[in-house]
Structure formats: structure tokens, C-alpha cells
Amino acid sequence: MPRAAGLPPGTLSLLILRVVRQEPMHGYAIAQKIRTLSSDQLSVEEGSLYPALQKLLANGWVKAEWTTSETGRQVRSYRITARGLKQLESEQDDYQRMADAIAAILQST
Amino acid sequence: MPRAAGLPPGTLSLLILRVVRQEPMHGYAIAQKIRTLSSDQLSVEEGSLYPALQKLLANGWVKAEWTTSETGRQVRSYRITARGLKQLESEQDDYQRMADAIAAILQST
DNA sequence: TTGCCATCCATAGCGTATATAGGCATAGTT
DNA sequence: AACTATGCCTATATACGCTATGGATGGCAA
């Protein structure tokens, strides 16, 4: 099966960090935020999301705490750390360089 | 080792097709072209390039013929096909949609 | 009150794509 | 003769997201 509507490899942690930077959020909400912000163009599957969050936790880029959502449910809320902010900046720069480089080729005569 | 200076997964065939669209080119030249067009930002390793070219051949997106280069060496020159042009268009559209979607998230308030 | 669906967390195993590390060959340069 | 650049290619490793699966909670409709 081809990567039909998935998201480009290598960008998942970038997107998560970017979304969580705004405000602490639980996993399910992160996935939905990415979906809506991208006008349904990008979909983060849960089987991708939670392992990615574990990685972010292990690297100390986010920290998690169990809280109660507005609907009264127990949810695990992820908050970006100082190191996470640095990482976000770094990944965003890398991505931009790549995107520019690819654009240069796609626009070459 | 992390993906330090490699190129973003999913874009290799797109870049190859785009470069070969201009003029038939042999493998080694394709790699160099991508490197120079991207100002050394993207590097295509030969171990990635040739398997990718095999895939393009198998899909009928390029055809190859052995020719003699200007330096007198036997080289395998790859030329894009009509189907390859369609594929290029499709992949470029996909890439653009993704890039736009990611940009939307990275630029969100 | 039962059944269904949305929400919510998480792991195991798979598939796909690229990178690493090699092998082989020619030709020009030093 | 040795070294470097050019040139083609394969086998293996590895990274990464996806599929499939499992479980739990709670609202709502039949």
C-alpha cells in the first residue's frame, strides 16, 4: 500500500512540538489539531502519534501529566519543555532548509 | 545515526524525475545535478539512487539506454517517458499540497 | 438497558524507503 | 604505480510511520 494520505516522514515530531507549543494538549486533541489546521490534508494516526509522544517524552522535549479534561475524563496532557522549544526551533530550521532546497529543484528551468 | 544531511524520505523519485525531465542523464550526473541545484543542501547517495532508478524503470516512468558519454565512457542514460511525466506531475502536486499543509501549521499562531 | 459511537491511551509487528557499506570497472593525473 | 574522480550496482541495516489490535470511559439513541 502506498502512502496515500499519510504525512511526510520526518515531520511528525516537528508538527507535534509545534502544536503543543501553543498550549498543553492531550494526544487525541493533538491529532485533531493537526488535522484541522491542515484542512484535513494531514492525518496523524494514533499508531503513529503515541509512539512519537513516547519518543518526545524520552528525549525530554515534552512532559506529561494526567489531568481532568473539561468533559470530566482523565487525559494525559503534554506540555513542551525548554529543551523541546530548542528542538522545535532546530527541526523547523532543518525543515525550512530542505523545503527551500526542494523548491529550488522543482522550480529549476 | 540520525538522518543528518540526507534528503527527506518520499521525495527521491520526485527529484529524479524532475531533473531527468530536462534532459536524459546518467545516474552519476543526476546525483550531481540534485546536489548543485540545491546548493549542496541535498545529497543523493548512490546506494539510494540506483535502487530508485530501478524502481522508476520497473514502473515505466523512465527508460534507459547505454550510450557513450562525451568522455568516451559507457554510461546508462535515463530518459523520462510519457507516463513518467504524468507521475511527475502527480507527485509534484502531492508534494505541494503537503508542503502547504505543513506550512499552515508552522505558521499558525 | 442495551448497543453503538466518539473519545482516549497504548503496544506489536509490518512495510516502505533511504542510508551504509561494500564490490567492480575505467580513465586521467601525479 | 598510486590516487582520485567517474560510473554502475547490490546486500544489508535502519528509521519511520502505518495497520492491526487491545482496552477503557462516557454520552446518547433505540
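qc> The interface with chain A takes residues 3, 7-11, 14-15, 18-19, 22, 34, 37-39, 41-42, 92, 95, 97-102, 104-106, 108-109 of chain B (CB under 8 Å).
qc> done
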